[in-house]
Structure formats: structure tokens, C-alpha cells
Specification:
Layout lengths: L2 E7 L2 E12 L4 E9 L7 H29 L7 H16 L1 H18 L9 H13 L1 E9 L3 H7 L4 H7 L4 H8 L6 H11 L3 H4 E9 L2 H20 L28 H11 L5 H13 L3 H5 L6 E2 L4 E4 L2 E5 L3 E5 L8 E4 L2 H21 L20 H15 L6 H14 L4 H8 L4 H7 L1 H20 L9
Antiparallel strand pairs: 1-2, 2-3, 4-5, 6-7, 7-10, 8-9
């Protein structure tokens, strides 16, 4: 039976509807929820009746969406493709649209290789053969740059940078990339050409080449096969999951050296940053540098995630790109990515100053202001586009006179600094939002070794004086 929870908020009364249902396929109880708001002028009796009807309909919808798992239990004639389609529905119910996008992309690649097999006939050798084919997959990559004389082309059509910023919905940072001759993506290039009333080929040079998929992408394809066969085991279609490491080899990644600033680069970067006049640029980049949060997490920050009085920030969402849905608000990368951590006084003071500027902007825009709740914004209050953060970091590197560092490099720098300072790995992993401490130790092994050498030297210095005095007094 659905649970109905009344909520009294600033914007009036609403009701949270929760339904718990046993998903046989996933082997766990799943809770789904939604919100219902009464129309203005409804009496208490009308509200009670309407809410109950809505809750019953929602409960039926949820139960029906999970019911077919029972129907498929023990269905030994189902194909991998058929089971994959049913698994995808459940996975989307569990993990949301961003997961659906990644899983659908994986299925497009793997179903032509394995989709026609009956699940009961799939063996370890078949799975290994598919895994080997996945390792051989290649993708076509487009490299799109603005034409050398694009400014002249636009000017002849009466199109200026200012017009594009003020009269179109194009992102400011991406417009700047075009005017500075930088690489852009296919989606933005198409949008840009459309608002300019010209073909994409008229404004951009497009080159293509093939390259292999990254190891993490190939592994994601393989994990989808593993998850579908695990689903088959739960439905008693097969007894064993032949995609597990007990039977097949998923391959190993070649460790990649992480990019961090050294002490001199960090000093120059920070000195350049604190002298930036644009307060949003300054505070946004400072937030990444001093917290190590991911770019999507920064763009997903709302003001109610920041507790300036107690100097804490909570990460509850991410605003980043999904393969199928574009830029969307979604759950953080992993369950451990939802976290709360303390922030230094320097950042607290910067955020207080920024909030005063933010409130002034809200007043100036008046009725045109968009109440997104976002900390970092576009001119009218809409949530900031992730491309802006990249642009601000790039510009800061240029001002500092240092080589290029990505937004993620600031995250690596923050985490490595904590390790070098002797902060416990469990604490570092928690602040970073790593699902396991092994992720931290594997990625930052070099810095842990450097910290270990520092610890050894410290012990050496202590005990070298032991014969001269009692160091423990």
C-alpha cells in the first residue's frame, strides 16, 4: 500500500507518495516516490480523496512496471536481447536516466555480437569471444574547429559576438571558443550554424579519424553483459554467470599518470586567481581548488548545500552531460559521492562575498531572474554551463603563465596535497567521494609513497636525538 506523507513548505502543502515493491529480477525491495500538490481552493475532504486516488494510481503504475520479472522467471527460451530489454527497464527504474543513457550506448555495441543467443546457451567461451571483440571495437571521432576566417564570415552577415550572447540561447563559454578558434563539439557547432542561418560546413572545418575506445568504456560494455547475466541468475534462467572473473578475463588497464600542479605552478595559479576581477570566475575555480569536487558537482551546487555558518558543503547532485539526454541534473557519480565535508576559512569568506554579489544580481534582473537555486549561474540566474568552468580554468592558467591544466587536474592537485600533508587516506577518500579507499590509494600511489618517505624522515629526526634527551618528555 502506498505511503502518503504531508509536507508543509514555503510554497504551500504537498504530499509525498512512496511505494515499496519487491523486484524479483534485481533481488531487492525498491522504493519509488513522487509528489502530488492539491489545486488551489480544494477543501480538506477533496484533497484527501484526490490524493488517495493519485496514490492508488501511482502504486499500480509502479507494481506493473516490476511485475514482468515474475513472468520471466525460469523462461529458458528468452534471448539475450529480450532479457537485455527487460533488464534495461529495471535498471532505469533503479538508477535513473543517466544510467539508461550509458547502458543503451553499451547495448548498441554488444547486442549485435551476443543478442541472438538464448541466454541458457551462453557459455564462458562465448562471453570471452564477445569480450575480445569489444576490445577490438573502434569509434569514429570528429574534430571540429571554426574556420580561420569565421569572424569575417559572421561579420558580413551582421553577426557579432555581442549579438550571439544577448539574442541567442548559446552558451557564453562555447561562443568564446568559436571566436578564439578552439575545438567545439558537433552538437554546439550545429546549434551555432543554425542560429547564424548557415550550414555547418560554411563555418567549421570537420575532420574524422578512428580510434579505440578507452579501457573504462570497454569495461563498461562488459559490465553490462555481466549485469544482464546476473539478472538471468536471479530469474533462475541459468545457474552461473559466465561473465564473472571466475570464468573470463575482462582485461587490465594501463595506469595513467595523473596531472597535478607542482608547488611553483600552484603558487602562480593561486596568485593569478585571487586577482581575477570576475567574482564568479574567481570563486568557482577557488571552490574546485580548495575542495577537490568534480566539475559536475560544482555546477550542481545549490545554496542550500552550503552551510557558511558551520563551514561545510554537501554534495547532493551533479550537473553534467549524459550520452542520451545532454546536460542534466542527476545523482552523483556513486553512492559515496553524496557527502558533506568541512571547507577552509578562505573559501567561506570568498563565498560570503560572492553571495552578496549574487543577491545584487538577483535584484537587478527583477522579474527576468530565473530562480534555479544554483550557486554558480548564467547572467539571468540559470544554472551555469559546465563549459564555463573549463574556460575559467584555462584563462587562469594563461594569466598565471603556466602550462594548461584541466578542471580535473585541480581535483588531483587538491587530493595529492591532502595526502602529502599527512591527512588519513580514509578522510581523503571520503572528501573526494571515492567509493573505496583503494581508488584513492591506486590513483595516488606516488604521492602516498612520497608522504611515506616524509614520515620515515620525521621518525629518523626524532630518534636521532633520542640519545641526547628524552624526546618523549
Amino acid at each position: 500500500m502506498a505511503t502518503i506523507i504531508r509536507r508543509d513548505g514555503k510554497k504551500g502543502v504537498s504530499y509525498k507518495i512512496q511505494v515499496a515493491v519487491k523486484d524479483v529480477g534485481l533481488g531487492k525491495t525498491v522504493t519509488k516516490s513522487t509528489t502530488w500538490k492539491p489545486e488551489k481552493g480544494m477543501s480538506e475532504k477533496e484533497i484527501e480523496t484526490a490524493c488517495t486516488i493519485f496514490a492508488d494510481a501511482f502504486e499500480k503504475q509502479v507494481v506493473d512496471s516490476f511485475k514482468t520479472a515474475e513472468d520471466d522467471k525460469g523462461n529458458v527460451n528468452i534471448t539475450f536481447r529480450g532479457l537485455a530489454e527487460k533488464w534495461l527497464v529495471r535498471a532505469t527504474n533503479m538508477y535513473g536516466g543517466s544510467y539508461e543513457g550509458n547502458a543503451s550506448m553499451a547495448l548498441e555495441k554488444i547486442l549485435p555480437m551476443i543478442g541472438g543467443y538464448k541466454v541458457k546457451d551462453i557459455t564462458a567461451s562465448i562471453v570471452q569471444s564477445v569480450f575480445n571483440k569489444i576490445d577490438d571495437l573502434r569509434k569514429t571521432v570528429e574534430i571540429i574547429y571554426p574556420k580561420k576566417y569565421i569572424k569575417d564570415i559572421l561579420a558580413r552577415q551582421g553577426i557579432s559576438f555581442v549579438w550571439l550572447r544577448k539574442e541567442t540561447e548559446l552558451n557564453d563559454a562555447s561562443i568564446s571558443l568559436v571566436y578564439n578558434g578552439k575545438r567545439v563539439g558537433r552538437k554546439f557547432a550545429s546549434m551555432f550554424a543554425e542560429v547564424c542561418g548557415m550550414s555547418i560546413d560554411r563555418l567549421f572545418d570537420i575532420e574524422t579519424h578512428e580510434e579505440e575506445y578507452a579501457f573504462k568504456t570497454r569495461k563498461r560494455f562488459k559490465v553490462v553483459i555481466y549485469n544482464i547475466l546476473a539478472y538471468a541468475v536471479r530469474l533462475c534462467i541459468v545457474e552461473r554467470n559466465y561473465a564473472s572473473s571466475e570464468y573470463v578475463d575482462m582485461g587490465k588497464d594501463t595506469p595513467q599518470e595523473i596531472s597535478c600542479m607542482d608547488e611553483e605552478e600552484l603558487r602562480k595559479f593561486y596568485d593569478a586567481l585571487i586577482h581575477v576581477d570576475n567574482i564568479q570566475w574567481r570563486v568557482a575555480v577557488l571552490t574546485v581548488l580548495m575542495t577537490g569536487m568534480r566539475r559536475g558537482e560544482l555546477c550542481g551546487l545549490n545554496w542550500d548545500d552550503i552551510d557558511l555558518e558551520n563551514a561545510k558543503i554537501s554534495i547532493r547532485r551533479s550537473y553534467s552531460e549524459s550520452p542520451r539526454h545532454g546536460i542534466i541534473l542527476k545523482e552523483p557519480k556513486t553512492a559515496k559521492s553524496k557527502r558533506t565535508f568541512a571547507i577552509p576559512d578562505i573559501l567561506v569568506n570568498a563565498l560570503k562575498e560572492y553571495k552578496e554579489w549574487y543577491e545584487t544580481q538577483r535584484t537587478l534582473w527583477g522579474d527576468r531572474w530565473v530562480e534555479s537555486g544554483s550557486v554558480f549561474i548564467q547572467r539571468d540566474g540559470k544554472r551555469v554551463h559546465p563549459a564555463n568552468i573549463k574556460m575559467w580554468v584555462n584563462k587562469t592558467c594563461k594569466l598565471a603563465g603556466i602550462k594548461h591544466f584541466s578542471v580535473h587536474s585541480l581535483r588531483h592537485t587538491n587530493i595529492s596535497l591532502q595526502i602529502m600533508a599527512g591527512v588519513p587516506i580514509v578522510t581523503v577518500a571520503g572528501r573526494a567521494g571515492h567509493s573505496r579507499t583503494s581508488t584513492t590509494t591506486d590513483t595516488y600511489a606516488y604521492y602516498i609513497q612520497s608522504s611515506d618517505k616524509t614520515a620515515a624522515q620525521t621518525l629518523n629526526n626524532i630518534f636521532s636525538t633520542a640519545g641526547q634527551s628524552n624526546v618523549f618528555d
